[in-house]
Amino acid sequence: MSEALQRKAAAGVQTRRADGTHRVVVTGMGAVTPAGVGVAPLWEAVMGRKCCIGEVTRFDTSAYEVHIAGEVRGFDATEHGLTKKEARRFERFVQYAIVAADEAMAQAGLDMEREDATRVACVFGTGIGGIDELQSGFATLSEKGPKRVNPLFIPTMIGNMAAGALSIRHGFKGECLNVVTACATGAHCIGTAVRDIRHGYIDAALAGGTEESVSPICLAGFANLGALTKAEDPACASLPFDARRAGFVAGEGAGAVVLESLEHALARGAHVLAEVTGFGSTGDAYHMTAPAPDGEGVVRAMRQALAEGGFSPEDVGHLNAHGTGTPPNDATEARALLELCGEEAGRAVPVVSVKGTTGHTLGAAGAVEAIVCALSVMNDCVPPTAGFSEPDPECPVNVLVEAKTGYPQKVALSNSLGFGGHNACLAISPFRPEGA
User: Fold this and answer.
1) Out of 170, 188, 318, 360, which one is annotated catalytic?
2) Fewer Cβ atoms within 10 A, N terminus or C terminus of the chain?
3) Is 122 an active-site residue?
4) Catalytic residue among 183, 189, 341, 381
5) Three-class secondary structure assignment of the chain
6) 264 is a catalytic site residue
7) Residues paired with residue 208 on neighbouring β-strands, in sequence order
8) Cα distance between residue 205 and residue 234, in whole Å
9) To 10 degrees, the CA torsion angle through 107, 108, 113, 116?
10) From the candidates 51, 322, 381, 422, which is the catalytic residue?
11) Does the active-site annotation cover 52?
């Protein structure tokens, strides 16, 4: 960006943080979820406390213990901007990423013909990648031999292909990354892009996460692990923080955001939606699948995110929780919030988990939930949590059953936790020209 444009962008607006680094803002958002294609149906479903979970339609689950999931039903990529060739070649996780990213790019109005492409990055991950192609490829190898395996098996299946395909589609020539931290993937991808922009390595990025996890091998593996609920009624299956919770519901989809330095956004006349004011990233060093019971790593991630934005725990407007509906996760996250804010204040902070609406979209969850968090602070509200009705003494936090409206906030936190002890927290604030 030229000095003249920087001066124009900075006129009357505080574009840098106190430490001299760039403010990072959101200018576009896109989503594909069990609520449908687009951010609007997602927001409508979450605010309406709608459950978008149902019986699995993609394959026969009669031999399985689990029969429900958060599918993206009726999805046809060719109805949303992909060619028939692209739809045949790309796995569902790539298709979801492309459709979500196209929406985010359109809203941002980022014209790559006018950008320095080497200053625009793509940081887009997936927790599992092309699991359908992987399962199909092994079956072909076993049943028909090596000569019959799809010659595009590897580039179709590998998880980095979402970021690769998006960079090719839009002409991004900055960093092209696939950060993988299981269920924290989407949040870590956004946080990585935020740090790159904040410290001046790039001007803008497309970031997010995607997943195609409603598949035979995934449902079998998660079910045998004991991670999935065996509930038959979709409305009583994904129950974040509820006393009846018994596991998560597998979901799928993608979330995408366009991030820019505030200087860059103002210079091109972009409409700023919200600001990512902080990012925290920690490890538990505890267990392969279980979170550390005391929530110490989660607390550190939340404190890091707040501190980076110059906030204190008293400033937290609400928590968009990871809230999977598994007994260990929700109890740990509740303890972490009370440790962060103090027992009394922590019990008052509004809490939402969108997984009651969508199920757990794994590698996409952090990005989808960051979008909901941004919409919440933009609209001075906190959504309710679908499925929640019976408070659990082990989770003494303020989970909403009705939307809280007319509620301006300085900052909200969006948590994501992944198998292996990966913790990510994004601090998201309404955009204020003068700064936080």
Assistant:
1) 360
2) N
3) no
4) 183
5) CCHHHHHHHHCCCCCECCCCCECEEEEEEEEEECCEECHHHHHHHHHCCCCCCEECCCCCCCCCCCCEEECCCCCCHHHHCCCHHHHHHCCHHHHHHHHHHHHHHHHHCCCHHHCCHHHEEEEEEECCCCHHHHHHHHHHHHHHCHHHCCCCHHHHHCCCHHHHHHHHHHCCCCCEECCCCHHHHHHHHHHHHHHHHHCCCCCEEEEEEEECCCCHHHHHHHHHHCCECCCCCHHHCCCCCECCCCCECEECEEEEEEEEEHHHHHHCCCCCCEEEEEEEEEECCCCCCCCCCCCHHHHHHHHHHHHHCCCCHHHEEEEECCCCCCHHHHHHHHHHHHHHHCHHHHHHCEEECCHHHHCECHHHHHHHHHHHHHHHHHCCCECCCCCCCCECCCCCCEECCCCECCCCCCEEEEEEEECCCEEEEEEEEECCCCCC
6) no
7) 124, 256
8) 36
9) -160
10) 322
11) no
Q: Rounded to two decimals, what is the model's pTM? A: 0.96
CA 47 from chain centre, in angstroms, equals 17
Task: Express each pLDDT in 287-345 by its tens digit.
Answer: 998 889 899 999 999 999 999 999 999 999 999 999 999 999 999 999 999 999 999 99
Residue 110, token pair as written in the block: 């980022």
Query: So what's the pLDDT on residue 289?
Result: 87
